[in-house]
């Protein structure tokens, strides 16, 4: 822990697999599932982070837009229709998914506290936060919602008698 007894962003970052803009959507979904991630970091051809796709964003793409938020319409679709949508989705590059449903990934300083990270993640509605390096540019890594919850639960357990 850093001085002051607070855990900081730099102490809880992880290195996660990254999807590229030109990757096939199906490969990106498989990566998300295989690594049990709440979302995917998306990078451009130079490796620069350009956004993120949450698992919920990807689920939204499995339905026509007019059926989102309409349970009665969603009931009308059968499995064959869902399969056709999945096939169309699978052929798209990640670039298209990012345009349709992606988020700009929130960026935190290495010294950001857990409370600051929670506020940032909830405000942006993105389950990932990119932590920048202090001076050199680039990133130290990523913080996932799961990692943040894990650290918060541990801090609460330590504080409880």
Provide a brief overview of the structure.
With 161 residues, the protein is of the alpha/beta class. It has seven helices and six strands. The longest helix has 15 residues, at 145-159.
Write structural notes for this entry.
It holds the Pfam family CBS. The protein is of the alpha/beta class. The chain has one domain: CBS-domain (Roll). It is 43% helix and 17% strand. The protein is built from seven helices and six strands. It has helices at residues 25-34, 55-60, 71-76, 79-91, 94-101, 114-124, 145-159, and strands at 18-20, 39-43, 49-54, 107-108, 128-132, 139-144. The strands form two sheets. A three-stranded mixed sheet has the order 1-2-3. It has a three-stranded mixed sheet with strand order 4-5-6. Strand 4, helix 6 (114-124) and strand 5 form a beta-alpha-beta unit. It is globular, with a radius of gyration of 18 Å.
Q: How much β-strand is present in the residues?
A: 15-25%
Structural class: alpha/beta
Strand order of the largest sheet: 1-2-3
Number of domains: 1
């Amino acid at each position: 822990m850093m001085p002051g007894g607070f855990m900081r962003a730099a102490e809880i970052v992880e290195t996660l697999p990254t999807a590229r803009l030109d990757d096939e959507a199906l490969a990106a979904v498989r990566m998300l599932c295989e690594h049990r991630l709440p979302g995917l970091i998306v990078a451009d051809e130079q490796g620069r982070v350009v956004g993120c796709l949450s698992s919920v964003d990807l689920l939204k793409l499995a339905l026509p837009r007019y059926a989102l938020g309409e349970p009665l319409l969603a009931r009308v679709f059968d499995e064959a229709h869902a399969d056709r949508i999945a096939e169309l989705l699978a052929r798209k590059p990640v670039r298209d998914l990012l345009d349709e449903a992606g988020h700009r990934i929130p960026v935190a300083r290495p010294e950001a506290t857990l409370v600051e990270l929670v506020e940032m993640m909830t405000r942006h509605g993105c389950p990932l936060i990119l932590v920048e390096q202090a001076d050199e540019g680039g990133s130290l890594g990523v913080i996932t919602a799961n990692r943040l919850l894990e650290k918060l639960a541990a801090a609460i357990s330590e504080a409880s008698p």
